[in-house]
Amino acid sequence: MxxxxxxxxxxxxxxxxxxxxxxxxxxxxxxxxxxxxTDARTFARALLLAGSGSYVVFVTFAVAGDSLFTDVxxxxxxxxxxxxxxxxxxxxxxLILVGGTPIPSLRATSNELPGSIAVPFLIGPGTVSASVLAxxxxxxxxxxxxxxxxxAVALLAIIVFKWIHDFVSNRNERLVRRYTEIAGxxxxxxxxxxxxEMILTGLETWLRTLPGPK
Length: 214
Prior knowledge:
- The structure is a single chain.
- This protein is mainly α.
- Helix content is about 80%, strand content about 0%.
């Protein structure tokens, strides 16, 4: 599920996969409206609160696994993968054709910021899938540690980006806007590719469940 074989140990693979999906470079582009519109302290506080809530969700899925979808949510996991892939694909196509930020209308009060960041930017089909995979590879404690480590690294990098953005924008706003435009289009390549990978993975998994010819 969203992985290829390698000789890396399961803990490192689980950490690396979630960190790639939480890619701070891409996330900073997704959150650029909030980066521009909030002060550093408010942004950092909201990001840490969003990360805390996301951590609970990720660990829950890591421990419960696929059964949380089939037994509790009454949804097949492949449906979750395909829908998430379609959502990512639409975002990627928009970034390629239009440029700018993926969701330019994103606005929230200080109390709403953690929720606006957590869903769909931190908690999404890709990160939930990676959490389920971490739980299948590792013991519960090790999976929780790998998830927490990846989340902490990603959030810290985004906060650092916010500080750099504020420092540079005070001196050269035009340069920052140009960087955002270029980075947004470059981000679309990863977003679109990962979206197709999720859709194909969901379809392949679904096809394997179909009965063979009699």
